[in-house]
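Predict the assembly for these two chains.
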Amino acid sequence: MATIQIPTPLRRFTGEAGDVEVQGGTVDEALGDLTRQHPGLKPHLYTADGGLRSFVNIFLNDDDVRHLERGATRVAPGDTLTIIPSIAGGSAVASPLSRAAVAPGDGNELPALSPEEIRQYSRHLIMPEVGIEGQRRLKAAKVLMIGAGGLGSPLGLYLAAAGVGTLGVVDFDVVDESNLHRQVLFSHADVGRPKLDAAVERLRGINPYIALQPHPVRLDSSNALELFAPYDIVVDGTDNFQTRYLVNDACVLTGKPNVYGSIFRFEGQVSIFWGAKGPCYRCLFPEPPPPGLVPSCAEGGVLGVLPGIIGALQANEVIKLIVGAGEPMIGRLLLFDALKLKFRELKLRKDPACPICSEHPTQHELIDYDQFCGIAPPAAATGAGARAGGAGHAGAAGAAGAPSPDSADAATDDDDDNDDDFDVEAGEVKRWLDEGRDFTLIDVRSPLEHAICHIDGARLMPLQDFPQQLEQLDPAGRYVVHCHHGGRSTQAVQLMRQRGFKAARNLAGGIDAWSHEVDPAVPRY
Amino acid sequence: MTASGEPAAAAPAALAVSAADMAAIGRHAERTYPEECCGFLLGEARDGFTRVARIVPAANERGDSRHNRFVMSPETVLAAHKEARAAGLAVVGYYHSHPDHPAAPSEFDREHAWPGLSYLIVSVQAGQVDQARSWRLRDDRARFEEEHLASSAEPERPA
């Protein structure tokens, strides 16, 4: 027989008794006997799922049983158990998000959690920073992920696992073998499948209680505002500047926070750009770098684990924004160096002259981001689809009327000749080689990429030094330029045409298309 | 209603705090702004009428999120109970501040409360005390109900 001392405010549930005699060999048994004798105590000591409330502490004589064996701590006859609360509290409107469902005046407007959800999220629920209220905020939250790639993989996995109630994903790509070294959402069995199909299946397996909203579209200026509208937070997992500026501007115009992450080779960046509360991406980078200066991951490579680290940090910021815990990365830019294993942090300031997020913006709608970034859509990315935008090539290069390497041949080729002599298909180049035609094949990739694979006979002229090396070439000659997928070679051919190389053409789809369509012995990467 | 008056039988719950103690709580809340402050209300409670005789400011023992969360450890609570007993009083409630938020209890407050106590919340807006309100959790834990907060001109002394 042990004694439990009842704290004063709870004595109303024990008939004003301050000491209650209980049976039981352990703390749990003794407390069980107490709530059997006085059932009114139970809701104040235990949560609905039977756990002791986080603020209720049990002392055995003078020791907190958390430092002993908790509920299994032995209780001897004559021992005294004392119920001591730790006092906790806090203000309600902790989430900085403005939407009523995420930041309500009181917790009652938030969706309730089912017993299954409470089991899944129990490790969240026992932390006061999240708790039932934070978890219900997560359930109410709507997050849109741009891209289901390297960053999108950890983002999707962790946001789904954390119980973000509505998770939208924008992607139009299919799973490629070269994705698997970093895009941990996908497995070999998914190669060739639309990423969204594979992603939804995987995320559904992790959390069947959330709504997954696939958006199988290419994000552009015509659809971004409408896509963003129903969401609370947008997470940028893109790998190119056009989309990054588009995501930023659309977030500013719709008032949404943009949880930003970017990766390149061994380095990554994380921030939250939120025009309403701090700087936006344009305050940091008013203008995109010149095309070709900063290669994409496809061109420059990326350490497979890097998007895992950066994407997980983005997920962390998303969850903090929703539950209102900690210090969000608004106005701060985190720089991560995987080789040195160093994090650096920069303070960001809002640009008072920012064209989109300042008090007197000059831009009030979305613009043409390909044009803004000085590039045409990469031909390789969408195959024939990009050719519709291929007019930009001819216009930019002033190539109208320029002869193709073989105009007679082009005239007979009704597949390929639609007034666009800028691009040339891999199969056509192969035929020219087989026929022994007079032209030079130029590879503008890096020497490292050349070492992975190359087309026999191609001359390596990395894009970095290309403008200088161009002086060695005869502008009257005929050239076909290729890179990995067609992006860098497009820039090279544009430059050549500006310098009077009228018969320079771009190998559409790069060496990847060559491998796919002409010579499977050339490994794809 | 005055702090010293006896409530009528059917009167709603009320909390009486002296003007000096209210001022001290306000100073505590402004000093810790933009973080939350917290402390104990010591006094006597009878028939829904609670008279605060002394306040005991406490440290917010949270290591993080101190702008919207506070905690006082069980050891601190024990010490406050000891101090109350020594003075012939009881811990009748707690106070804490809500920096830049209304003086209304949050869902988080509700999950961490017991009935039978007064929860005095002070709203601090932009560093200045804005409003104080006091709340009691219903026995069924469904929600807090506001109790009348009376502040007397004269400092109260324990009877």
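Chain B is about 20% helix and 40% strand. The interface with chain A takes residues 36, 38, 64-65, 68-74, 76-78, 90-91, 94, 96, 98-102, 104-117, 119, 139-141 of chain B (CB under 8 Å).
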